[in-house]
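Annual report, structural modelling task.

Input specification for the calcium ion complex:
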Amino acid sequence: MTGMAMPAVPAPPQQRTNTQPSSRPRTSRALTIMSLAILSIVIAAALSLVTRHGGRYPWTASGEPEKPVPVWTNPADALEYVPVTARSFQMGCLPTDAQCGADERPRHKVVIQRGFRIGRTEVTVLAFSRFALATRYVTEADREGFSHVFHAGALERKPGVSWGKPGFTQTPEHPVVNVSWNDAAAFCKWAGGRLPTEAEWEVAARAGQEGRVFPWGQAEALLLDGQPLANAADESAKKKASLAPIVGGYDDGFAYTSPVKAFPPNAFGLYGMAGNAAEWCLDRYSAGFYRASEGTDPVGPADGADRVVRGGSFVSLLGSLRASSRFHLRPSMRNDHTGFRCVIEGPLPGER
Ligand SMILES: [Ca+2]
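The model returned the following structure:
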């Protein structure tokens, strides 16, 4: 950094016509300054790269060392996507999961026949603003003049709230919220994809690690080596947003949304599969769908008024952060803690 701050020394006028031998020290000094400047730029770029790629956490949320992720940047929305190869997995709650809901049973085998790419993070405010600007899209909250905020344990209709005016401070790297399923589906179409099916979402959240209650593992502890693992309803939210109930004694530092990469990724390199913003899925919701699901590339029931929401958010307790936890909302519903990520269909390299 000191190299960049060093001013270039102006040469005295009489030296401008100096012969070659006497200009050598000046040349040498200039080269040193230039070298220091280049070194500073390289160090700054490296630090920026490390920060952008989650270097704050050299380990995943489940404690393993973070592996290199074959990230693809979608030119349409400028967001990072991660490939998930074709695979089968056990969908639904574990028999030992005391918080399992009836709609998470039975745990059953699901086959995903084709690989897909899924957003590495939730769709950011920056990406959504690009979409809104490019398409002149007006969200349902903007069109109707209100959204919903979580207050005193319930959703409350609030005029003037929208994705651009959530009622709390967001940076461009926070997840967009106050978007309906219809808004989210429109964004994903613009980005060249669609919302993830519920099965795609869950296989991505589990990240190849079978038999886990939470995306990070079995333990209900939201801390690993003293570091918070997810943006949940915490002491910060209680203090700054009067949120209740909260996970007592847990402080993740964020009363509302956090930057999308503020917490460690899962084993696939995906951020925010638990907490921060809840996420819309493609499927219609049916409480009994798992009993009827055919198990191969499920896309949800044909009928149903609501759409599935997954992953929990900054207003969630531990039960909603579980990998199998299911929620559902009307497709026109929007609130201050629900966002989404998109899927781009395959084939992936090596697949047909
Ligand atoms: Ca929080």
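The first helix runs from residue 2 to 5.
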